[in-house]
Design goal:
By secondary structure, the chain is an alpha+beta fold. It is built from three helices and ten strands. It has one domain. Helix 2 runs antiparallel to helix 3.
Length: 217
């Protein structure tokens, strides 16, 4: 994955300081209108209703610093999407951050070779700060292929310092996978059916959590 960053040019942007614009201190009179600051970009955003979580991942590669947008869908079709921010813009009132990004596509020609590329289409989403811990963003797409967007349904996300991936995986992903595997192993006796369904469901949760909590090597 580290080589992937270099190939796709993921070091073109670093969002750690809002594109170089350091957020000013907020005066008492302006405190009623929360503004996006640098710390916000180093947190996770979770919404239980949509079963989605996302965050900006800062990394270093080739001596340069870059950013990825990682979106975890813990719903009926669990998956993780990796995006490459191409531009960001902070609104004049500093309450909304507009991010344009391209998704990373993975193609497997055979079991030993996986190629990557960026989507030609550029997507956009807006993160709006409502309070110190509440933000809004929109989700578009089908249940099997959701993403952050400027259209679709609006959800209120809670900002958190700790990744919620493991908790969301256990609460939402495992029951869904367990049900699917119980059906897949219905030809087995009851004991082995439950055994393997539980085993594969746990592995699915582990993989989902690991993919979301992306770590560079």
């Amino acid at each position: 994955m580290k080589r992937l960053m270099v190939k796709l040019g993921l070091t073109v942007m670093a969002l750690g300081t809002l594109g170089g614009v350091v957020a000013p201190s907020v005066s008492a009179s302006a405190a009623k209108k929360p503004t996006i600051n640098n710390t916000d970009l180093k947190r996770y955003y979770k919404n239980a209703k949509s079963k989605t979580v996302f965050y900006f991942k800062t990394y270093k590669s080739g001596g340069k610093t870059g950013t990825m947008l990682i979106f975890g869908d813990f719903g009926s079709t669990p998956n993780v999407k990796y995006g490459v921010p191409t531009s960001t813009k902070l609104s004049k009132n500093r309450q909304t951050l507009t991010t344009k990004y391209k998704l990373i596509q993975f193609k497997t020609a055979d079991k030993n070779k996986t190629t990557t590329s960026l989507t030609k289409k550029t997507y956009t989403f807006k993160l709006t700060k409502k309070s110190s811990s509440k933000f809004t963003a929109k989700i578009a797409g089908t249940k099997a292929n959701r993403r952050l967007a400027t259209t679709g349904k609006t959800y209120t996300y809670t900002k958190t310092k700790k990744s919620p991936a493991a908790a969301y995986g256990k609460k939402y992903v495992k029951p869904a996978l367990y049900k699917q595997y119980m059906k897949a192993f219905e030809s087995l006796d009851a004991t082995n059916q439950k055994k393997y369904a539980n085993q594969y469901a746990n592995q699915g949760v582990k993989n989902m959590t690991s993919n979301f909590n992306y770590k560079t090597k």
